[in-house]
Amino acid sequence: MITTEDFCNHEMKMRKTILFLLSLCYICAGAQQAYNVRAPFDPATVKVEEKKRGEVLKFSLNNSQIYPGTEREILVYVPQQYKSNKPACLLVCMDGILYDATTVMDNLIASGEMPVTIGVFVNPGVVYDEDREVVRYNRCKEFDSTDDTFATFLETEVLPRVEGMRTESGKTIALSHDANDRAITGASSGGIAAFTAAWNRPDLFSRVYTTVGTFVAMRGGHEYPAIVRKTEPKPLRIYMQDGWYDVWNPIFGEWFEYNVLMESAFNFAGYEVFHKWDRGNHSIKYGTLAFPDAMRWLWKGYPARVQRGWSNNGMLQEILLEDEDWEEIKLPVEIEGDIYAAADQGVVFASGNKIYKISSQEGEYKTVRYATLKKEEQLVGDGLTMRGNALYKDGKMIVDSLEGVQAVCALDGGKYLVLGDEKTKVKADVWVVRAGGRALAVAPDYRFCVTGEENTHHLISTVVDKSGRMLYSEPFYYLHDLSNGTKHMAGNMAFDTKGNLYVATEMGVQVADHNGRVRAILSLPAGRVKSLAFSGKYLYVVCGDRMYVRKMQAEGHLPQNGKSAYKSQGQG
């Protein structure tokens, strides 16, 4: 006898079977259709008459210092409308001339849908042996790596060769150096390369077209969705194309899924992003069909600047002021070493044998020289110098030897403590933020300190007892690194009054919560942050040879201003 329950179970199984078979039919049909879908006609794809076409130049680049031994061909498109008295916009494309790009550019430039733009089409490098046999293909190395190496290659080795080239009609090529006038694109590994270049160097590119991008686990690209969500949005406009059937090699991950995750992360982070998902597989075909509209969308409203959005990241909203951005401070001298927060606001730094202070007066930042370093003396803090193992405050020796001491930090009430092991009992009226080559930060309540080590993702948290002993050290804070281990991780560090830790890194300023998790990353035009100092509500950073400052919602904690309690964030 068949019960009602048996019947229902049988019916459910049948429904599942039918749905499964239907889904297989749909997938198979879709796979068949992937190559047969006809796109609407776009007039930008029609070849113009020869006299109206742009000129294509080419050169070989065989002497790269960044990618030694590589050889490659680079093609340069110059539109008919280009005039050498005005620098042109720029489109960089990976893997040579894709998307029938020169034809589309001929049409879009002529119609005014795209500004006058020089196209630079960069092939990946190849290394040959003495018999001209290929030893190494460099494409995956160059394109899928997530650090800024390829962007630097474009900036220092490719584009300078393009500038100064002459067309057959005698026009000298001049490129705009404004990121707002520059776009970059590529397919597959070239797609992630385009994004990576703009992501690491928003001072070079602001418009990105990525097709069938390999945001998968080849060289760290799968980490991008999480990183994008944590990072303050950059001034980028992004057009994404991918197909539902995009799986070239599933061992690296779900290719289409990662593109969807990227688009979701962009929306969360406040980017201006457009996606076009279609029935394609891992093919250039649908990226070619979308190229005209991608160019129209990326260049819409030009010359208006691409704007930076406002993220849904709660930490970013808590520490940043929406209307405040980084401001570059023009320096009369070069910064050597770290910058240090001054007790009365501003920062101090050394250049040669001189000590300088930067302070703000009604929004104007002034650099003033106020002291001279003696021979073999180095600046290690505000009013604080070191010569050998001896420590000086305002020119007066206060500790004759710090040999064997792990770190030095300030305590409240003018009492300062040298942190060491159980045998160290030296106390001094001094504080420093770097000792033994390692970055150091002391929590606002003085109950623990954080030290950094080179070439590791972790920062060490150490409990400090009332006598100054350092106890229970362990790797606690985890930093992100898209340089694939090629760069030193942590520069110097500082806490805000709420106990969040700010760390100078290659990726920008990483901000970690009480539980050692990076929840926010502050981006800068030049990317890499060598040093930082938090003075009041102003965060100062050094990027390369440039200094920037930003007014924050958060407020920095200065050890010399005394101990401060803060509310714990709990277990997380």
Could you walk me through the main structural features you see in this protein, from its secondary elements to its overall organization?
This protein is an alpha+beta fold. It has two domains: 44-303, Alpha/Beta hydrolase fold, catalytic domain (Rossmann fold, 3-Layer(aba) Sandwich); 315-560, TolB, C-terminal domain (Neuraminidase, 6 Propeller). The protein has nine helices and 33 strands. Strands 1, 2, 3, 4, 5, 6, 7, 8, 9 and 10 form a ten-stranded mixed beta sheet that branches. The chain has a five-stranded antiparallel beta sheet with strand order 22-23-24-25-26, with no helix packed on it. Strands 11-33-32-31 form a four-stranded antiparallel beta sheet, with no helix packed on it. Helix 2 packs parallel to helix 8, helix 4 (149-162) packs across helix 5 and helix 6 runs parallel beside helix 7 (255-269). The longest helix has 30 residues, at 4-33. The two termini are 56 Å apart. The model is unreliable at 1-5, 14-36, 410-417 and 424-437 (pLDDT under 50).
Based on helices, strands and strand pairing, what is the structural class?
Answer: alpha+beta
Helix count, per DSSP?
A: 9
| CATH class categorisation of the largest domain | Alpha Beta
Strand content: 25-35%
Number of strands: 33
The residue fraction in helices comes out at 10-25%
Can you name the CATH architecture of the largest domain? 3-Layer(aba) Sandwich
Mean pLDDT: 85
Stretches with pLDDT under 50, minimum 5 residues? 1-5, 14-36, 410-417, 424-437
The rough form would be described as elongated
From the alpha-carbon coordinates, what is the Rg to the nearest angstrom? 28 Å
The number of distinct structural domains comes to 2
Can you tell me the CATH superfamily of the largest domain? Alpha/Beta hydrolase fold, catalytic domain
CATH topology (fold) name of the largest domain: Rossmann fold
N- and C-termini, Cα separation: 56 Å
The major pleated sheet works out as:
10 strands, mixed
